[in-house]
Specification:
With 190 residues, this protein is mainly alpha-helical. Helix content is 72%, strand content 0%.
């Protein structure tokens, strides 16, 4: 698998402190960590710190020579960064909504969980693309563009927000049906 070879090459480069490998890992992962931190009560400076710490963890693992990466570098960096950030939030007493840090799973489980979520997101993406209009646009307007029901009613020509809400519910049920019928059973490539 080509991607796997690239990932291993990047790790070997990182272990050698190869500038190109370091830059590539930075380029492919920094914005993800920035989003994670900023969306969870952090600043750009916090994100830089967390990313640096995650890179050090990855560097030390790569340098050990015994490290076997069983997921994408992106998944690993995300998981490490998430755990580091949760720990920092707890120490700063800004830990909210996420729950008790003790309930955060070990990074290996976290990575598997993240990889599983990634594949579910891919399946969900396929399901959304099979949803058709206006459902696809309506759900994107609500969940991605964060529009409220009143705005959606106006944009989509519904008589009021309540009708838009009913339509959103029907679209969600349709999406759920498509997702579970076709994709949950591993038939995503139909």
């Amino acid at each position: 698998m080509k991607q796997e070879g690239n990932e291993q090459a990047l790790l070997r480069g990182l272990a050698r402190n190869d500038r190109k490998a370091v830059e590539m890992i930075y380029k492919e992962n920094y914005n993800m960590v920035l989003s994670l931190v900023i969306n969870n009560n952090g600043s750009a400076d916090d994100a830089k710190d967390i990313f640096q710490e995650a890179m050090i963890v990855l560097y030390e693992k790569a340098k050990s020579g015994t490290f076997e990466l069983n997921c994408l570098i992106k998944t690993y960096v995300y998981s490490v960064s998430r755990r580091l950030w949760l720990k920092k939030l707890q120490q700063a007493n800004r830990f909210s909504e996420v729950g008790d840090i003790e309930s955060v799973v070990p990074v290996e489980d976290d990575m598997e969980d993240h990889a599983k979520k990634n594949s579910e997101f891919e399946m969900m993406d396929k399901a959304i693309n099979n949803l058709g209009e206006p459902c696809k646009s309506l759900l994107e307007a609500f969940y991605l563009q964060k529009k409220n029901m009143q705005e959606i009613a106006v944009d989509f020509g519904y008589t009021n927000a309540e009708n838009a809400k009913t339509q959103k519910y029907k679209c969600l049920m349709r999406l759920k049906k498509i997702f579970f019928t076709h994709y949950k059973n591993g038939n995503g490539d139909e």
